[in-house]
Amino acid sequence: MNNYRKRIRADLTSTPKSDEGIPFSNRMDKARSIKKLKQALPITPNKRAAVLSAYVDCNRILKSPGVKKFHDSFEESVEKMAIRNIQDVITSVKHKRNGEAKAALNILTSSVSGENISDRKRATKKKTQTEVFLQFKNEYPDEKIGQRAFEKCKPYFVRTAQFKDKVTCCCRQHVEMRSLFKSCMQFRKRLLSREGSSEVKLYESLSELVDDTLCTRSANTHQHKISCLDRLCSECGVCKFSMLPGELDESDVQISWERYEYKNVKVKGDKMIRKLVLKLEVSLHVTILHRHSVLEYDGKDSTAEEPNIVTEQFFVISPDQKHDHHYTHCVQNLVSEYLKSINCEISVMHEFTDGCSSQYKSRHCMGDVSYSCSDFGYAKILRNYFETSHARGPQDAAGGFIKKQADLAVIRGTHVIQSSSDLFDYAQSNLSTTADSSKCSRRIFRYVDSVNRDRDRNFLPVKENRKIHQVRSFDDGEIFVRKLSCYSCQSCIVGNYSTCMNDAQLGTYNKIKMVKESEHNDSDADSNNDEGVDDETNICDFVSNGTIFAVKADDTDCPYYILRASKDPIILRKTATDKWGASYHQGNKVIHGYYFNTIDNNPFKLKLLKRIPAIVPALSVIYICSEVDIDDNGLINLNESLHGRILRCLDHE
Q1: pLDDT tens, 84-108?
Q2: CA–CA distance from 92 to each of 79, 99, 104, 105, 300 (Å)?
Q3: How many domains, in total, are found in the chain?
Q4: What is the percentage of the chain residues whose pLDDT exceeds 70?
Q5: pTM greater than the 0.70 cutoff
Q6: Which domain holds residue 612?
Q7: Where is the stretch described as Disordered (predicted)?
Q8: What is the mean pLDDT of residues 553-569?
Q9: Which of 285, 428, 307, 451 is nearest to 354 (CA)?
Q10: Helix (H, G, I), strand (E, B) or coil at 564
């Protein structure tokens, strides 16, 4: 501390005597001089100020070197203070990202550089940097520059497209007026380049055109008069807008522009208009095809000795939002037709899918596999299932790429996509070809307006279908299933599945006969829903996570309850009590789930009670509601036919 004080004292007393700066040897000398000056000046403030002002401003006194140095130092200090203030403001503002800070920085910069900040350019990229670079290389092949160096040459006022660029004014009048103005100015530009006239002006914005038809703003305001804006002024108007003879000639080329049409959409609920406008419901089904190349189509041949595998991405776009086994069958049919159109002969089709029950793994989906050979002309078809939520792969990346490119096209304003057909047209015309470095040869797009669901392809349940991971077709209505797939032994690779060398680890194939519901009479179906499986199997064995089922109730007003299972049936290891107060002892087989409650006393309209879990005995299950679909809000709709079947099951209890 003592050393610090000595350094401060030394700095204060080490000021040299010179004509520049302070001429005092130390602060005490300066203080004594100021004290003598105060004693010599008048006491009253007014007289003291008058004396000092007269002394400084006197012409004879101004010749004094001391007074002159005082004036020079005063002016210099003001300039330095102003510069220091600007530096402090810029330093404190330039790192902030809010709008007010940026505006203050622009004002300070413009005050120094003289730049008009209102005319600053802003532009949004309509292409990616890679697309711009490739276009530049095509136009200037002699220029030797890399992509990274080329990207550094991007002007400062050009920015990438963002999501906010898509959210703009949806007023029909404003949008159509901008489109009309743009088309008219393009037409005028062509006329000016052809005729070379300078009588008219080429406007850059609609606001600039309107300003020319109004009176000039006054010097003390930036706004037009209200009478001019209402077109009540006699000195201005549309008459001030000059046009070329070619623009008034009706026999000349017509101008075309885009316009919007009203579309009435009825939506249940209380959704906001913004969400309704921005929401586009499109179904996109992705299939990754790996096949042998065809000489006539791919330019290369493929043989067993020299195989050449081609990878393709097959997309099916449809407005149909119901992803069920009928939709999947339609996609398989389109794939089969495409392979036949390019003369690609397929005898064995291997499918790898996820475990989605509605599309691939339900009893109806397995029934479709049993008839796939006769439907599509294959000699054999094998379907392999991934574990649940473990099927993320190239198909998800391919679908995400299509959605991302469509989103960017809308944001950049290059395309208008308002329906599934618009998405199909955009994708087919812009995304069919792939990059040379891509492992995918091409993208194939197909459009399906509607899906045929009037098919007799509803089947009775399959025992423990969630544990099956491979299905192999045999004859119509018959399939072979096993719990694991094998692609490692030589027998399975060549197609001799009956002699698999890994049966001890993977298990053997079990033959199952798929029975259609239409071939089963109502009485047998009501009394035994498990036909095609063992007689000892109970209906509760078909309940799994997510299954909607009916249980017998002791309530006289409601003979049965509808539940949704949250787990597979289990045997209790200890006594358990649910939130409804029902208790079950150790060793009982029960099902965990949630009840459905009626809405507005309507027995056919139910809503899931998600917050109150329930436990029911497994033996109380009387019916599996496989034909019931639940929406995102937990709502289901029953019908009288289903209600009657459940009641008939109760009568047989």
Answers
A1: 777 777 777 666 666 667 677 676 6
A2: 20, 14, 11, 10, 65
A3: 2
A4: 79
A5: no
A6: 535-651
A7: 1-22
A8: 84
A9: 285
A10: strand
